[in-house]
Write the structure tokens for this entry.
Amino acid sequence: MEEAMAQSQVSYVAGQIVKGTVIEIRQKEVMIDIGYKSEGSVPSNEFSDHDEEELKLGDVVDVQILRLEDREGMVELSHEQAIFKQNWENIKTICEEGGCIKGRVKAAVKGGLIVNVGVEAFLPSSQIDIITPRDLDVFVGNTYDFKVMKLNLERQNIVLSRRELIEEERSAKRAKLLDDMVPGDIRKGTVKNLTDFGAFIDLNGLDGLLHITDMSWGRITHPSQMLAAGQELDVVVLDVNKESERVSLGLKQKEANPWDKIEEKYPIGSKIAGKVVNLMPYGAFIELEPGVEGLVHVSELSWTKRINKPSEVLKAGEDIEAVVLGINQDDQKISLGVRQLDTNPWDLAEEKYKVGAKVSGKIRNLTSYGAFMGLEEGLDAMIHVSDISWTRRVNHPSEVLKKGMDVEAQVLEVDRENQRISVGIKQLDDDPWDKIAELYKIGDLVEGKVSKLASFGAFVGLDHDIDGLVHISQVSEERVEKIKDVLSVGEEVTARVIKIDRSDRRIGLSIKAATYTTEQIKEEEAVLDALKPGEDLVALQHAFDTFGNDDAETTAPAAKAKEEASAVEEPETLAKEEAPVVEAPAEAETPTESEEASVETEAEAKGDEAKPSE
């Protein structure tokens, strides 16, 4: 009776949260006795989301009074609102204390998840995990711990974060790992992501960098050649920086370094086989074994061929042989050579091409100072322009030689050190000037063809490949103004030898003296001897050699015979007025760089020699 009277004295007001006992469970409502004069009812669906166990008679639950009496005189209650109000109070307390709250993911929505933590809260996608997940549906229905990030009491809005709890947990693990980890440890990890320079490995809370150079002793161009995201592997700890929380990892260090005892495996001078893995302008990299590469410099590809870049003779992926030239174990470098597989032809050149020996070959190239003659593959000999003929002044080798022509020559010099061979064509024959006294004598009557014309006279080709000069004063008894008016190239003439100068290799001829007596011939010889300096045969011949060609008239003083000598113009004046400009022959070719280098010294020497023909 006293308890009943005490309960009757309890005051009930709307909004109040009280405890009640389940006295009846109906299909749509649950009847609750809160000790009031009438029973209360709660919609049955309010219990589904909050009660883990099935509701049964006699259970005591929290309810909020919404209205004391409805139309039927019953008390209107809400279990859901009672829990909501209690949870809000709990959440406010958690936020003030910085704690966490447990909740169940209710649904996935745009931008995140709806989580039931007693009240509905929002979990942004960026706060679900360390890496934002792509599929949010996999979280629906699961229960997790969350941290309250933002709370708006007026709008009853709550923003949660699961990522912060994960990061705090990882931070604690990271600190412990850094304390425990030392270089040389082998740790299990998972490939987190790949970059061009390496891979980041998750060591169960701590990320380490596995650089591409520490993945393999061999050559790899990208980490994806060895690893994939999500792959599990064992790695070696190389370095630990506790201040910056950085860990360097290695994979290749689990295996022996192939450069250990490299000099024993590949002795200098030994022949090896490998594969071309990379071509550069300066050389080719050859893989001898995984992790060991050697470099063949472009200069070590051939003894004789000029190779500008390795790609001219090698291809990536090609299997080749080479010779070990040098090893630097500290820098992990091996120098290789391909040409050492063959004998250097210059080592045998002195023995094979002895000075004085006769050789034959094709003219391979022409230059302004000579011609290159091929002896064998990779070996050329140079014929200097001065070594083509004993008697003929050759201004350019194209006057006598053509590219592709078969020629014979005599070896003059073999310079193995500078890789040069000099040969001459004229040396195969005797110098006709050595026996000129036997061939021609003053007063001899000779026949020949006009080979060249000049303003001062004409050159006549004689036997033994010797040219004679007919001065303009020796063409006719009558005064000749222009030589081309009385003679033409190719014309056959008969002339008398009136002067022989062996030291300067010159023969003076006279057409008009062909019918002279011995006394008259001596008189004409005296006329030639009396020519002024610059008018003599040597100077005239030199002027022609320097300026003339087959079609041009070269300036030189036209000396008159006997009484007409005083009327001759000064040589210098004529030279200024009539000297033509002569172009180089069209066949001239520019020598290659190697040819220029091989004959530079020899060409200079030839140019400095005081040859009789000059």
Notes: Residues 79-97 form the longest helix (19 residues).
